[in-house]
Every structure is written in structure tokens, then in C-alpha cells.
Design a protein that fits this description.
heterodimer, A: 316 residues, alpha/beta, seven-stranded parallel sheet, 11 helices, 12 strands, B: 331 residues, Rossmann fold, five-stranded parallel sheet, 33% helix, elongated, NAD (chain A), glyoxylate reductase (NADPH) activity (chain A), D-isomer_DH_CS1 (chain A)
């Protein structure tokens, strides 16, 4: 990978950058130049950039790809590819790789952790103790997680991993997916609305596409109802965030565990007042162990590309 | 022997059996028990308790103990010569002199497994929270720091962590079942190996368990043997990335030593639902970022209480009709 010119769109896990340098890559850091200067930066360095490593903060959009005539490959440090213009890449013959599988466990772990945290109000309990309020009285009861009906939107790798964990809590599993899967124990529903009407905990774990944008709309939220909770470990734009906020504030939705938002890191402040909401700053796969595995996968893909070997995890 | 005969003082048809309640119970509890039993409430009397018992409770056969308000032992038992059953709505019975009851032929019943799933859920929830910093991250977001400071420090993967369970009883085995689904290898320390769980690795003491674990989950009863079972040696063995989750009793851990070990980085973090002197919590813990603290709420769900009260009623009904008790405490 000597002298491979790699554009980094966002500050990466330090190990990834170190490894790219160790292998002799020439790194160009888009984030070192101010945002309004990005295109100029790209054009100035276009001749050397053959690879882009991006992530969910800053992807590889059409303008970026257009500015890089020597671009051969985009490796995203994520499994979601909604921030990569796949159509443009296909047009230009630019290869795309992502990081599936290595982060499945982390995201599934967080989904279950968020569900328990919301239902049993863990952050609220912690606040209750730290503030000294526990010395003055008790906190109202919180509802049991085990046995709740779990509905999974998108029964892919992550959805299946969530189902597997929820089953250990005796949660009946149902799902909605583009197509029915062969799972005798999991009940299929033909729409997100049907799914929401028949579960207590709705988990969003599908890819963000034109079909799934705003799939969690007012009707779905109302169907989930005042005892229902929404867990979003997919993408912010899956959810009509304005409707979600008003449903939570008005008590029409029982609670929410959210790892993703429409306009990260800008989160509707109304959520900060609510004990039945748990928010994490897009940390679905943010563990030391998984970041390292994701980094290794990015590097392995870039190396495969340079050596003319088959890519490990190509998207197209 | 768990069953009791009722040859004397059997309630007449239509008459509700008497149930002594020593301390005030909530309206909710009262609403559940009063349709079935004639509640004799000691706290409503102006008499001090010993006088009340000797005056009004010579024929009392059943007492309901809804919370650990002090030891229920010989001095009270002596005032209740007809007592046949002590129905507790807690899982732990440290506040009952079970030995003294047994010697008098008095059965003790507890909450059975009614609290178990909630306790297990909570232990798992605390574990994910500590390793993935869920509560800490929620606090970060609520304080506006995601906007101001940007991305949050990395957490530690839950799946695959080596889990060591201290006390593989009802709660411990339910915790294990859940964490197996997270790909966690399970080890345990218990008074004796459990042949029902051949795939879990047994250790004869907590120190060795700690050496081979990334996480220790405490789910055993508090007894003289288990008091301070988590001491400095155990925490050193667990190591600087190790995490302790306590849904048992505060006194299972040497609490001042825990605080020191967390401050010094001897262990990596803790999720604590119980403390030695609730609701007092060591002040230093309330300033730490690598701990998650909760108010002894692991089992307090409406679903658990409903189950526990139904179980207590079932035990009492069984007692009054001479049938086997459902959740007798064996010792």
C-alpha cells in the first residue's frame, strides 16, 4: 500500500490512521481545511487521491467523488452506506467497501442495553441517587423488560443478533422486513404499522434507503402507543423526529432509546427533560475492540484493492 | 416440615382468616390482601407492640412480613404461640430468624422466583450500561456536551466478556442464560458445583473466579460466609478493566475498599443497585464516571409485585387449607 494516496474525511480511530501510515499510505485530511474550503482542498490534491476512507459523520457524496478523477475505492468505516453516493460510484467505476459483521454484536448489545435502560429508567435512577433524592423518598416503579413483545424492523445481521438476545429474556419476537424470512419462531408482519401495533418494544435496525426514510411516522408512533417504546440504532432519518418528540412530550409514546438523530450532534432539547428517554451519541459500534476490528477490515479491503485481490466486504 | 395442620382456629365458612401485619403496609398491598384476609394491624393500636401481641394475637396463625423492618425473631415469636406461617414478600429473609421459626414448627415462605427475571434483567442492564457507558453518555448528551465537545470516548464490548457469577442460584442462573445470548462464557462460584449447568465453569472460591473473569456479577444471599466476599484481593484479581455488578446486597462488598479500588483504578468500573447503608451511598461514588448507581430498584416492577403478592396469598391459602406451601424457605 506504499504511497497510496488516501483521503480521510473525518478524524478516525487513531489506530486506523497509524496503521495506514505504517503501511506507507500518503494521508490527506479533509478536516484539516475549513468546510467552506473543502472542494478547493480536494481539487488541489486530486492527483494523489486514489482512496477515500469515510464514516457516518462525513461520507463521500457526489461533489466529493466528482472532484477526485483518480479515485478508485471508497472504504467507509461503518456498515451503513447512506453517506456514500453509490450511484455516482457505480457510474465512475469506483469500488465501495463497508464494515459489516464485525460490529453486529456491539450494535445488538446496545439495542438491548437501551431497551432495559429505558424501561427500567437506569439513567434516571443514577440521577436520583447522585442528587441525594433517594434519601428523601422512593422512585415510582418501572416496568419489566423480560417477556415484552419485541418488534424488529429489518431482520438483517443486526436485527437477528438483537432477536437472539431478546429471546434469552423470553421476549416474543416479531419483525417486518422487505421479505419474509424463514424463522419459525419469529412472527412476520407485512408493514411497520402492523408491527408497531403488535409489539411493546420496536427496534429500528434496517438500512437507510429511500423506502425506509421516515418509516417511523406519526401513525407508527401512535400504534406503538403510551406503553410502547422505540429503540433506534439505525439512522436518525428513519424517524419523523418532530413527531417523535411531540409524542414523547405528550405521553402518546411510552419512551425511547435513541443512538441516532436526524441532525447529529444537534438533538431536540425537549428530550433532555424526559426520564423515559435515553440518548447516546451515535456509539452503536464505538468500543475499543470493534473499532479495531473495523479498522483492520478497512485496511484489509484497501490492501486487497491495491494487490488486485478480491475485496473482503464490497458493497457493490 | 412445610405443611401445617389446621385443627384449631380454622376459619368458619365465609370468615376470612386473620393475618397479622406488624408494620404499616401500602394501600396497594392492603387492597390486594384485604379481600382474602382479616388484616390485624399492629401499628394501628396505641399499645406498644409486645403488649399488642400478648393482648390480641394469642390466636394469630399467620403473619405477613412485607419489608425488613428489623429482626423477626424469638422475642416476637414468644408472643405468638399459635403462629404457623410467616409469609414474606421478599426473596431475602435475613430479617427472619428462620432457625427459631423452624424449631417452633413455623413455616417461612418468601417471594420464590417472582423477583428473579427482573433482577436478572437489571443486572444485564447495569452491565451493558457500565461497559458501554450508556448512562454516562446520556448525561453527556443532556449536558449539551455532544454539541460542544464532539464525539464521546469509546466503550468496551459486552459480547464475549468472561462473566463470573457469584452465586448461581435463581437469579444467577437467569443472568447466565441472558448473557449466554451475548456470547459470554459463564463461570461461577457457588457453595457447591451445579450439575444442571455443565457448560458453566465452576470455581471453588471467588478469588480464582475473579482471576479468570472480566466481569463479576453478585447475585447471592447475604450470609456470614458471604459478607465482604468481595474484598481487595478479589478486586486486584479482577483487574484494572474489571467490572463488578451488584444486585445482591451491599454488604457482599467491602464498600470502603470498593471506593478505594475504583479511585485507584484497581478495577475498571461498577454497577451498583445495593449499598451497605441504603439510602446512604458513599459520596465519592457520586462523583465517579465509571460507575452506575441505582436505588435498589432491580426487582421493583409492578409485574414482580403482582406476582409476589399473588404468591404470598397462594402460600397463605395453602397453609389455611392444609396444602403444601408453594415457596417455603429451606435452610
Amino acid at each position: 500500500m506504499e504511497l497510496l494516496g488516501v483521503l480521510l474525511t473525518y478524524p478516525l480511530f487513531p489506530y486506523l490512521e497509524q496503521e495506514l501510515l505504517r503501511r506507507g499510505c500518503h494521508l490527506l485530511r479533509l478536516y484539516d481545511s475549513p468546510e467552506n474550503n473543502h472542494l478547493a482542498f480536494l481539487r488541489a490534491n486530486a492527483a494523489s487521491i486514489r482512496a477515500v476512507v469515510c464514516d457516518t459523520h462525513v461520507g463521500a457524496d457526489a461533489a466529493t467523488i466528482d472532484a477526485l478523477p483518480c479515485l478508485e475505492i471508497v472504504s467507509t468505516f461503518s456498515v451503513g452506506v447512506d453517506k456514500v453516493d453509490l450511484v455516482k460510484c457505480k457510474e465512475r467505476g469506483v469500488k465501495v467497501t463497508n464494515t459489516p459483521d464485525v460490529l453486529t454484536d456491539d450494535v445488538a448489545d446496545l439495542a438491548i442495553g437501551l431497551a432495559i435502560a429505558v424501561l427500567r429508567k437506569l439513567p434516571a435512577a443514577d440521577r436520583f441517587v447522585r442528587s441525594g433524592a433517594w434519601k428523601r423518598g422512593g422512585y415510582p416503579l418501572t416496568t419489566k423488560f423480560s417477556g415484552k413483545r419485541v418488534g424488529i424492523l429489518g431482520l438483517g445481521r443486526i436485527g437477528l443478533a438483537i432477536a437472539q438476545r431478546a429471546e434469552a429474556f423470553n421476549c416474543p419476537i416479531s419483525y417486518h422486513s422487505r421479505s419474509k424470512k424463514h424463522h419459525p419462531n419469529y412472527k412476520y408482519y407485512p408493514s411497520a404499522l402492523d408491527l408497531a401495533s403488535n409489539c411493546d418494544v420496536l427496534v429500528v435496525s434496517c438500512a437507510l434507503t429511500d423506502e425506509t426514510r421516515l418509516i417511523i411516522n406519526r401513525a407508527v408512533i401512535d400504534a406503538l402507543g403510551p406503553q410502547g417504546i422505540l429503540i433506534n440504532i439505525g439512522r436518525g432519518p428513519h424517524v419523523d423526529e418532530t413527531e417523535l418528540v411531540s409524542a414523547l412530550v405528550e405521553g402518546r409514546l411510552g419512551g425511547a432509546g435513541l443512538d441516532v438523530f436526524v441532525n447529529e450532534p444537534d438533538i431536540p432539547e425537549e428530550l433532555f427533560q424526559l426520564d423515559n428517554v435515553v440518548m447516546t451519541p451515535h456509539v452503536g459500534s464505538d468500543t475499543v475492540e470493534t473499532s479495531k476490528s473495523m479498522a483492520n477490515l478497512v485496511i484489509a479491503n484497501l490492501e486487497a484493492h491495491v494487490m488486485g485481490w478480491p475485496l473482503l466486504t464490497p458493497v457493490m | 416440615m412445610a405443611t401445617a395442620t389446621c385443627t384449631t382456629n380454622t376459619p368458619k365458612i365465609g370468615e376470612k382468616p386473620k393475618l397479622l401485619v406488624l408494620r404499616r403496609i401500602s394501600a396497594y398491598f392492603e387492597g390486594v390482601f384485604s379481600p382474602h384476609f382479616d388484616l390485624i394491624k399492629a401499628e394501628e393500636s396505641s399499645l406498644p407492640l409486645p403488649a399488642f401481641l400478648s393482648t390480641h394475637c394469642r390466636d394469630i396463625r399467620a403473619v405477613l412480613i412485607a419489608a425488613p423492618y428489623g429482626m423477626f425473631g424469638s422475642s416476637l415469636l414468644d408472643q405468638l404461640p399459635s403462629l404457623g406461617i410467616v409469609a414474606c414478600t421478599t426473596a431475602g429473609v435475613n430479617h427472619i430468624d428462620v432457625d427459631a421459626c423452624r424449631k417452633r414448627g413455623i413455616a417461612v415462605t418468601n417471594a420464590g422466583e417472582m423477583f428473579t427475571p427482573d433482577a436478572a434483567d437489571f443486572a444485564v442492564g447495569l452491565l451493558v450500561d457500565v461497559l458501554r457507558k450508556v448512562t454516562m453518555a446520556d448525561r453527556y448528551v443532556r449536558n449539551g456536551l455532544w454539541m460542544l465537545k464532539g464525539d464521546y470516548p469509546l466503550g468496551s464490548k459486552v459480547s464475549g466478556k468472561r462473566v463470573g457469577i457469584v452465586g448461581l442460584g435463581s437469579i444467577g442462573s437467569h443472568v447466565a442464560k441472558r448473557l449466554v445470548a451475548f456470547g459470554c462464557p459463564i463461570s461461577y462460584f457457588s457453595r457447591a458445583p451445579k450439575p444442571n449447568y455443565p457448560s458453566y465453569r465452576y470455581f471453588p472460591n471467588v478469588l480464582e473466579l475473579a482471576r479468570e473473569s472480566d466481569v463479576l456479577i453478585l447475585s447471592c444471599a447475604l450470609t456470614d460466609e458471604t459478607r465482604n466476599i468481595i474484598n481487595r484481593d478479589v478486586m486486584v484479581a479482577l483487574g484494572k478493566d474489571g467490572v463488578i455488578i451488584n444486585v445482591g446486597r451491599g454488604a457482599l462488598i467491602d464498600e470502603p475498599e470498593l471506593v478505594r479500588c475504583l479511585k485507584e483504578g484497581v478495577i475498571g468500573g461498577a454497577g451498583l443497585d445495593v449499598f451497605v447503608n441504603e439510602p446512604e451511598v458513599p459520596e465519592e461514588l457520586t462523583h465517579m464516571d465509571n460507575v452506575v448507581l441505582s436505588d435498589h430498584r432491580a426487582v421493583t416492577t409492578p409485574e414482580a409485585f403482582k406476582g409476589v403478592l399473588e404468591l404470598a396469598i397462594a402460600n397463605l391459602d395453602a397453609f389455611f387449607s392444609g396444602k403444601p406451601l408453594l415457596s417455603p424457605v429451606s435452610c
